[in-house]
Amino acid sequence: MELLCLEMDTIIRARPDPNLLCDDRILQNLLTIEERFLPQYSYFKGVQKDIQPFMRRMVATWMLEVCEEQKCEEEVFPLAMNYLDRFLAVVPTKKCNLQLLGAVCMFLASKLKETRPLTAEKLCIYTDNSIRPQELLEWELVVLGKLKWNLAAVTPNDFIEHIVRRLPLPEDKLALIRKHVQTFIALCATGRTP
Questions:
Q1: Closest of 177, 176, 184 to residue 163, by C-alpha
Q2: CA angle, 101 as apex, 113 and 194 as ends, to 5°?
Q3: Where does this one sit in the cell (predicted)?
């Protein structure tokens, strides 16, 4: 008996479930749960002494560029930024560790959202080898601990389909509108304005 492997390099994603998208309770639950995953105040005023807003913007821009170059799923970058902000809201961090933290957050988000997650080695290459894979793996445990292993955060991307389905939009424009919304979400997450 001969077995043939018919797998291809393309990834087939499940389609959104219309039963879930049309249920108002799902949207209400997302709005309620979202509150749990947002820092309650500006961590630059209290927790962070070494890191300034422009530094966060720089690491966020770098993270977005890595995600784009690696063709990550659209959910990876906003989720990684959620982890970064939640960590910075509770742990005073030195500026020399900010890129390491960003790499760890991308590493975790890609594990949760990607079919083929980013590797520690690849992320270290993107830091110009300023960090080692072992450092990244050690910090992964630190970040997981501080986030209490609660990684299934609600991000703006979770709302896109729920909102788009409720708007009177022409079917042929939906893909373009989704793309614009995702771009806007990425710009907001980096702290840049369009």
A1: 177
A2: 70
A3: Cytoplasm; Nucleus
**Taking the alpha carbons of 162, 165, 169, 174 in that order, is the dihedral positive or negative?**
positive
**Which residue segments constitute the domains of the chain, with CATH numbers given?**
47-190 (1.10.472.10)
- Residue 113 has φ and ψ, to the nearest 5°, of -110, -20
H or E segment at 117?
none
Question: Reduced to 3 DSSP states, what percent helix, strand and coil does the chain have, rounded to the nearest 5?
Answer: 60, 0, 40
CB 87 within 8 A of CB 81: no
Residues 6+ apart with CB under 8 A from 172: none
What's at 112, amino acid-wise?
L
Contact 152/29 with Cβ under 8 angstroms? no
Q: What is the pLDDT along the chain (194 residues), one digit of tens a residue?
A: 565 555 555 666 677 777 778 788 988 888 888 888 888 778 888 889 999 999 999 999 999 999 999 999 999 999 999 999 999 999 999 999 999 999 999 999 999 999 889 999 999 999 999 999 999 999 999 999 999 999 999 999 988 888 888 888 888 888 898 899 988 899 888 885 43
What is the rounded CA–CA span in Å between residue 85 and residue 44? 11
| Amino acid occupying residue 156 | P
